[in-house]
Automatic annotation (TrEMBL):
<dbReference type="InterPro" id="IPR012480">
    <property type="entry name" value="Hepar_II_III_C"/>
</dbReference>
<keyword id="KW-0732">Signal</keyword>
<keyword id="KW-0574">Periplasm</keyword>
<protein>
    <recommendedName>
        <fullName>Heparinase II/III-like C-terminal domain-containing protein</fullName>
    </recommendedName>
</protein>
<feature type="region of interest" description="Disordered">
    <location>
        <begin position="234"/>
        <end position="257"/>
    </location>
</feature>
<feature type="domain" description="Heparinase II/III-like C-terminal">
    <location>
        <begin position="5"/>
        <end position="215"/>
    </location>
</feature>
<keyword id="KW-0456">Lyase</keyword>
<dbReference type="GO" id="GO:0016829">
    <property type="term" value="F:lyase activity"/>
</dbReference>
<dbReference type="Pfam" id="PF07940">
    <property type="entry name" value="Hepar_II_III_C"/>
</dbReference>
Length: 257
């Protein structure tokens, strides 16, 4: 993307291995991104197992992953250090080449029981970045809980910094602009303190970008990630490149655990 070596990972796999999904995280439809061999949008990791307590549960939850979250609750419900009371089911729904890139889509039913909604995510990869479209689809069933918040988060690697400009977030690393993440006008952007565990037993401070819906009746959200060309300084962040200005990137869709 934009002349950078790029790897995007779209997690649409099962919650975890076999029936208890012991090592699973409630991260269906999460997006991870590496640029030039370095992580930018990351999974929060595991940190600890039995001794992790509330920290382990938090790092397994939906709210800390790079996916849509309703009411700050999990797509799947934790019932122990290695168990789940209720598990979301994910389904890959399509891969399509377009004139400017590739669309890949998947959905999960983790919020169907409580909110009567399926979550669908379509990621479009083109030569200058990615477009993430999150859609809430009505199941026709009565919701058992009121909807109080809709959020979409992106966890940054600790080496990355961010600043907000309206509904756009500029992401940098060491003074170099990496990308701009833009949301639609009816969404508010915030930066939050977050946790990142790069390896077992290690915890680091990080930043999470969170977009929140201003209107809870909104059912479709578009987030654009414009990757900046290499060596773009923070003071020279430019508008999005056109699709014909850079070679297409590699795209991987797979489950991460």
């Amino acid at each position: 993307m934009s002349g950078r070596e790029s790897l995007a990972v779209f997690d649409h796999g099962p919650l975890g291995y076999l029936s208890i999904a012991a090592h699973g995280h409630a991260d269906a439809l999460s997006l991870m991104l590496h640029l030039d061999g370095k992580p930018v949008l990351v999974d929060p990791g595991t940190y600890l197992y039995h001794s992790g307590g509330s920290v382990r549960d938090r790092l397994r939850g939906t709210a800390v992953h790079n996916t849509l979250c309703l009411n700050g609750t999990g797509q799947s419900e934790i019932s122990g250090a290695f168990n789940w009371r209720r598990k979301a089911t994910s389904e890959f729904t399509g891969l399509r080449e377009t004139g400017h890139g590739v669309d890949v889509s998947a959905q999960h039913d983790g919020y169907a029981r409580d909110f009567g909604l399926l979550c669908e995510r379509t990621i479009t990869v083109d030569a200058s970045g990615l477009t993430v479209r999150d859609t809430l689809l009505a199941t026709g069933d009565q919701a058992s809980k009121p909807l109080t918040s809709i959020s979409i988060g992106f966890l940054l690697h600790p080496e990355c910094s961010a600043r907000i400009e309206g509904t756009t977030v500029v992401v940098t690393r060491g003074g170099e602009a990496l990308m701009q993440i833009s949301a639609q006008p009816n969404v508010s952007a915030t930066l939050e303190n977050a946790e990142y565990s790069p390896a077992f037993g290690i915890m680091q401070s990080a930043t999470r970008i969170v977009f929140r819906a201003n209107d809870l009746k909104t059912r479709e959200f578009r987030t654009r990630i414009d990757v900046q060309s290499a060596a773009t300084s923070v003071s020279n962040v430019s508008p999005a490149l056109q699709p014909d200005q850079a070679p297409a990137s590699n795209f991987a869709d797979a489950g991460l655990r």
